[in-house]
Design goal:
By secondary structure, this protein is of the alpha/beta class. 35% of the residues lie in helices and 12% in strands.
Amino acid sequence: MASNQRNIAKDLNVEFTPKVVKRAAKPASVMKSPYTTNFGSASSGKPTGEVYGLFPFSNGLMAMPDELQVKSFEQWFKAGFNDKNKLKKFKQEDRVLKVPLDFVVVKVNDKMWFYDLRTPGRNLSCSHIDVCFYYLRKQIKYDKSVRVAASTTDCFFAAHIFDLYNKFCANDEDINSVPRDTKAAAYIAGFGLLCGKPWFVLDFMLFPVNVMALAHWILCVFDIKMRCLKVCNSLRRGKFKDSRSFVNAFAVILPILLSHVDFYGRRSDIDKSTQYFQGVKDTDPLEIVFIDKLPQQDQCDCGVFVIKYAEYFIHEMINNVPKTLNMDFVRKKMCVELFVHAMKKELNGYESGSEFTGKMPKATRGALKIG
């Protein structure tokens, strides 16, 4: 058994130290290795502690992981897999993982999660987007090649903005009807989000938007210094051509939330004499700008495009996204990198530090005296 685990550790390019487990010790099921069946590993035990600074995505935006790592993922993924069966892609005993793969914001216990991520044309769920955008936040923080002052939100942020906008409209667009004490305001202040940052130290904020009525994902980039909302849309034809209505809620609500905390008044680094601030009040809607010449989807791959747009943006290469994205390659790359990341955690017996920024202190609620 130890030799099998040593082999998989070698494939994944991680150190392997055999663990001696007393026969009498029977750790709880949540501590048992999820790879016992798949890889013949019987190691178990309490994680050695939290480790910070690790993320799954490589600097090579279109570079496939090591061949042995790809092989390891394929062996794990194809166990019990039958693509010809339209109803049950996996045998039940292979589909449900004994212990979830821990991606901190989501614990995945079903191989169908990987099937949806791996298969071109399959829609991505909020959990897929949240996992990837969480690790993009970590990459921004720890990858020295990323120099842009940016961060990301989760899917909840967009849903919350839509809710605030609907209430704002129901109250005759009264600015005072937008509360100061909101979870969106907490995000702006740097609270409530794993590995989040206060917007006061950023130039860009990236957030995924799920247009639920159309089952479509788009990426919004709030350019703080240019006071505009940049929209990356992978489907700009037909009813999707003008996505202005999809993002208008953000253009309206974000300035109001920022005004509540005197955001631009606290940003001495921003020149308010520029054209972007001339003739507008702090609470006026943001300008909406569409980023053109981005690759467009052929199937239901909008979620993957949103992830890749964000990844290229943080590397300051949004204008260099390949004209044609090979969905089979891109999806497989993400699956392998996420799987290898989870496997390394399991084999090395550690947990990823979530870097939870905490809840917004009660003393700041309402007044939001931040910064």
